[in-house]
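Hello,

Our lab assistant flagged a job as stuck in the queue for most of the afternoon. It eventually completed. Since we weren't sure the result was trustworthy after the delay, we are filing this so someone can double-check. Below is the sequence as submitted and the structure that was eventually returned. Let us know if re-running is recommended.
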Amino acid sequence: MTTQAHIPKTAPRKRSRPRSLGGLRARLLFSFVLVAALSALGTGALTFQQARTGVLQQSQDTVVNQFRQSVDAAVLELPSAPGQEELDSLVARLAREHQTQQWNVLATYGDLRAASSGLASVDGLTSELRASVETRPVAVFQRVRTGNHSSLVVGLPVTYSGDGYTARTLSGLTLYLIVPQKSEQAYVDALVTAVERATLPALGLAALLALLLARGVLRPVRALSKATRRMADGHFDVRLRVEGTDELADLAQAFNDTAAALEESITELRRMEAGARRFAADISHELRTPLAAMTAVTDVLAEETPGLVGDTADAVHLITEETLRLARLVDDLMEISRFDAHAAELNLDDLDLAESLRRTLAIRGWPDDVRTDLPDGIRARVDPRRLDVVVANLVGNALRHGGQPVTLTLRRAADEPGVLIEVSDHGPGIPESALPHLFERFYKAGPARSRSESSGLGLAITAENVHLHGGHIHAANRPGGGAVFTVELPLRPHGKEDPT
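-- returned structure --
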């Protein structure tokens, strides 16, 4: 006969971890904003580049065409070899005709120079531009930036053919136009401002859309998290609402199917557990009456044992021992049933622990078999009967299965208000494979103990009594050989009140 492990209706819930800044919502928001920012900046930069190129190209073509037309019209009145006076007149006329556009004109012919607005040299022009103008019969231009100002520089060689000026042969006369691009710069600045102003709303809109989308995506995730926590608390009837046909809906449906299967399994396990408890309790209760009669009979037979011989004496001795063993097993089963039914209670009393432990040893005739280190003056509020069961089980196991000397030690706990009770022996110790299972019901550490007088419930009852006090128990092997059992009890059980 075996008993089922208890399945609590409410599982212990772990403290939820605080949400970090790298949560799913934050990551979705960051991703949306990053994509929107890159898209807005990329679109803005491409738009700005195209618009800037178009504006500057149009301005450049317009200025070059105007400059060429003005020069073609003005040089018709020049002699084939103009002097300084003709050059001054030429640049003055060109600058005057386009005064509103702030043209600055420079003319060179051999060693002669003529400039408008105080320009007297071509030092501000690049050597590449001057060399191209002086050697090629085409207009050359470049944009020059000085500080925060941008200017368009155009170089135009004057050519002639036969009696008139044409665009085929260089005449030696070259003209340079320097015109500020203030309006173009203003337009470009306006484009930059427009892109900046458009980017900020785009980012804000992206953040808003990210929040809305994240909310829609995370709503079923939060519902799933909440349902999982409720299931961890023992509410196996929790279900999710399935909406739509996407992956999240599939996840919700899978959760519902899993929860339903788990609820069915847990219900069946609880039913089986309850049946096993009732069975063990009923069997133990029903066995008490015949066992009482059997015990009385065996007591009578035991008194007659000295007058018996042979097989009859052996049979009487065997039946007496087995009846006592069966009585202890029934008592242990009844005690386990009370723990399973949560009917076990503490009858607390303020005790001198050293005196109580000595009493336990004396009642069982163990004072000469057990070494003790029991300092007086350590008091705690415990249940005397249950403490007696704990110490008796541990010392009895050490005497039966361990090796001498067996030591019982009492001392105060170092970390928190409490006491430590240790029972150690010098026997072969406990197999490492058995240590995790020592406090399980009906577990015996080795084949040699399978037919021992113990029921296999002693250590399980010991652990239940310790836990009922709010304490802990664990077993280990001593470095020098032997086993040691350590019981840690609080000085006053938390939340436990003496019913008396």
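-- support follow-up --
The delay was a queue issue, not a problem with the job. The result is valid. The radius of gyration is 52 Å. The first helix runs from residue 24 to 74.
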